[in-house]
Amino acid sequence: MKSSSVLSWVILALAAIYFFVPLFATLEFAMRQLPDSGFTFMFLGRKHSFDAFVTSIVSPDFQLAFLRSALLAIASIVGGILLVVPTVYLIRLKLPQWRSPVEFVTLLPLVIPAIIIVFGYTRLWIVPSWSPFKTGLATDVLLAVGYVTLALPYMYRSVDTGMRAIDIKTLTEAAQSLGASGFTILFRVILPNVRSAVLGGAFVTFAIVIGEYTFASLLGREVFGTYLQRIGANEAYEPSALALIAFAITWACMGLIQFVGRAPGARPAR
Fold this sequence. Notes:
Layout (H helix, E strand, L loop, with lengths): L1 H29 L10 E3 L2 E3 L2 H8 L1 H34 L5 H13 L2 H13 L9 H29 L3 H10 L4 H12 L1 H17 L2 H6 L4 H11 L3 H24 L9
Antiparallel strand pairs: 1-2
Helix pairs in contact: 1-12, 2-12, 3-6, 3-9, 3-11, 4-6, 5-6, 6-9, 7-8, 9-12, 11-12
């Protein structure tokens, strides 16, 4: 048992080194940018500063791109929840024979490359002369629909796992006996009991949208992913700072998953 414990700690240490050393190197490189005037400090025998982080955050282009990505992420999360939760509920309650076909369909975004999906969207909804998706706002709507598609495998399996852990039939019958409508049953009885699963899929969706590049690039919209690529092609230190910012946002989302999942009332009803 002692040797097994030592081996576990060795594996953990190696994994931590493999994980944190690249992050540390990226951070150290990002801090090499020195301001013309401002706060600097000595680190590893040379001057460093946080000028790359400050410059990146205060940039209007960054703020606009990140705000658009955040709004698209929220729209994609809402759309994914409205699509997946009723679907999984009906399949588990009344249509179990449709489970395998629906699971197959939800796996397609993992098999079909994103560039093919967005090319199909472009040919179908933007190229035709009658298309209503030629304005910026309409293109954002189409982009959000595309993000719902990309996140569908993760959202569906997260919600499906959550509903598998509760007795949907008993909860539905109990709510119906009290005169609840179908809408009330779904959004006031079932949804609160799979809150952790839904939030898990929601934060994964958020992380996907924040880092996505292909859809936004081919649809001609400036989001965080395209902004990061553009800055990376023209600047030296800011891309490293932005990469760390995006990494911190992703891990913050994962931390929220753990926090919400352990919050009081997050446990499914039986």
